[in-house]
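dude i think i finally got it to work??
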Amino acid sequence: MSALLPPAVVAGSALTLQAFNRALDRLPRRYGPCGRYSNTDKHKWRNAATSLLNSFVLSVLVLSCFYWYPELWDDMANYSMQLGEITYTALFGYYMYDFYDMVIYNKFSAIWPVLGHHLTGMLLLGMLHAYKQAMSVILVALLCEISAVFLHLRQLLLMHGVPRQSILFRVVKVVNLATFVIFRLIPIVFSFYCTLTYDLAAILAVITRLCNFALIVVNVVLFRRVVYSDFIRRDNNNKNEDEAFIMDR
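look at this
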């Protein structure tokens, strides 16, 4: 892999996402969100739409890695390929974009956990690039981007005022729950198991294990929130706006 390609992909990813974010302001109002997301909190809508685009692109990249390189299952600790590195560097660019966007529009006290997550993620991706190990293990964890597509879609539907009783929202919430289990919880647990059993560089082994364990905890909490909000709570007919940002609470 050319030494210039990783920084080029990082910069291209971050700048493209930022340009897409700003371009959303040019959409006619009839295509935009409703309520406070069309005014004071419009930056949250732009960020959710941009995150949806990023999750879709990363999902395609991750699935392409598994389709074109099935041999990665044979040596998940040491196998590496250029498409995998492109996937990581594109994710690194997203972290940079989202870090900047959140710092600009939010108070530090409200976003420090997300900022910590992004900094940890960038550190991990940098170490993966340096050690050339555990690429396949983390690619498994990145299957969660498929689930993220439906999480962000759910979020955007609520921001646009789509009723929870509508057929569209009901379909999305069921698919969201299914993909959460299949493409988020199971892959992350499997990835954590791999970090415990494979022979990795000492510092990389420690960091990947800690990151995967933290991901398991965070996603179990998120899963509980989604299940409670969409399938258990009954007094949510007028809670669309309040629940739209469930992913960040």
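The first helix runs from residue 5 to 23.
im so relieved honestly
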